[in-house]
TrEMBL record:
One of its GO terms (cellular component) is plasma membrane. Gene3D superfamilies: P-loop containing nucleotide triphosphate hydrolases. It is found in: Cell membrane. The lineage of its organism: Bacteria, Bacillati, Chloroflexota, Chloroflexia, Candidatus Chloroheliales. It comes from the Bacteria. This is ATP-binding cassette domain-containing protein. Residues 2-249 form the ABC transporter domain.
């Protein structure tokens, strides 16, 4: 379970460049819940994920993972509970290292690392078994340098590595945005499979409204550091992209949104 209680975060406080990135976020995700997050640029989506990952500590509020207060935990300490995949396929892997070396590092995420052997022979069958899930033949290329892989292969590997130890929370920060449509669809299918099979509590940021409604079981919309829509159940299941745009328009008419929320990037489907 993931719980955020009244999370506030301001960058450059008191400065001319002050940005109130998160304004009193209250959010609870049950175990295994898959939530998509949408909103215009600067809405606070990535800041929300960074707060959960421990990239920074909030100015106010508490963060709980499995009922444990992790608010003041450092990012490396929180890594044993949180897996993350970024938009850039190059960020999640070490290009100069082999596939099996990258996976060995992922297997040790959040654990104490002494002077013992990092890559153990007994782990190779485990790596092959997991890599076979990708359907890319990487299970037969354990010694290949990751830098030789395509962007889609690297992002698939990154996703696999992020879930290898079955983290309590999985964070996906526009993880298919840099991929071509066919590869993006393959990675989305893999995402659904891993989240479902491992029962992972997941937050996925996307600018694609169609994906926001088709992936997972709940959709949040953020604006100016706040959650202004929380859609789930039958209400969400009935919605089309057009319906969601209309909700934006309705909120804007009530003065809760400005025109920037419905931008070209957000309307991609």
């Amino acid at each position: 379970m993931l719980e955020l209680n009244s999370i506030h975060k301001t960058f450059n406080p008191g400065d001319v460049n002050e940005i109130k990135a998160l304004r009193g976020i209250d959010l609870t995700l049950e175990v295994g819940e898959f939530v998509t997050v949408i909103g215009s640029n600067g809405a606070g989506k990535s800041t929300l994920l960074n707060s959960v990952a421990g990239v920074f500590q909030p100015d106010e509020g508490k963060i709980y993972i499995d009922n444990t207060d992790v608010t003041r935990w450092a990012e490396h300490h929180r890594a044993r509970l949180v897996g993350r995949v970024f938009q850039d396929p190059l960020r999640g892997t070490a290009a100069s290292m082999s596939i099996e070396q990258n996976m060995a590092i992922a297997l040790l995420r959040g654990k104490r690392r002494g002077l013992g052997q990092g890559l153990r022979r007994k782990d190779r069958p485990v790596f092959r078994e997991h890599l076979a899930l990708l359907g890319l033949g990487l299970e037969d290329r354990l010694q290949s340098k990751v830098g030789l892989l395509s962007g889609g292969q690297r992002q698939s590997l990154t996703l696999l590595m992020a879930t290898l130890t079955k983290p309590r929370v999985l964070l996906l920060d526009e993880h298919i945005a840099a991929l071509d449509p066919a590869t993006a669809e393959q990675v989305l299918q893999l995402t659904n499979k891993l989240v479902r099979d491992y029962h992972l509590t997941t937050l996925m940021v996307t600018h694609n409204m169609s994906q926001a409604l088709s992936m997972g079981t709940r959709t949040l919309m953020m604006h100016q550091g706040q959650i202004i829509l929380d859609l789930r159940g039958e209400e969400r299941a009935r919605l089309t992209v057009t319906d969601l745009i209309n909700k934006f328009t309705e909120l804007r008419g009530k003065g809760k949104l400005d025109d920037s929320i419905v931008d070209d990037e957000l309307l991609l489907s």
